[in-house]
Amino acid sequence: MRGSGGGTRGDSWPWLAVYALLLVAGPTLAVTSAVHMHREGAKQDRLPLAGVPVTATVTDRDKGSSTSRDTTTVSYQVDGRAYTRTIRGLASGPTMTLWVDPTDPTAFVADNGSTDGSASGPNGWASVAWGVIFVALGVAGFVTHRRAKTRPGPPAKRPPSGSDRPAKDRPTAPPKRSLSRTRRRAP
């Protein structure tokens, strides 16, 4: 059972390291993704009400492929300072409205619902699901490894003589002597 981590100590440690990595990476990915999504959601709720509306110029649109997301790069100015950010989603025209946080001009919500952090980080509830899957795989690996270590091996073979003692512990029979001894007769 070498592939499932059931070998000897020498060949099972890499599998144990993989299982431990999954048990560390899984909760890390799940928690950071959940915190990120919670913060982005709070920003989407707060900034349209408390933010300052700013008109941003769309400088680049990237229609994503089947493996990447659509992104839009926008440029805007707050208090004479220029900012450029990339957000998730495509803009519908050459400009878009951003609601900028007055205390942090780098934080905003766009009119398409994207935030300044939407194109970065472990963002999406799917990352939380992947974290849970990693934990499940790590636990399953450790359980499988432990079961393989505690499972009894094949029964021992009995010595061919039928004795319960191993051959090295059995007494040996004295050597056989020949019955036909030749005697020398005296002349």
TrEMBL record:
The keyword DNA repair does not apply. It holds the Pfam family DUF3592. Residues 55-113 form the DUF3592 domain. Residues 146-187 are annotated as: Disordered. Residues 178-187 have a biased composition (Basic residues). The chain crosses the membrane at residues 12-35, 124-143. InterPro entries: DUF3592. Keywords: Membrane, Transmembrane, Transmembrane helix. This is DUF3592 domain-containing protein. The lineage of its organism: Bacteria, Bacillati, Actinomycetota, Actinomycetes, Micromonosporales.
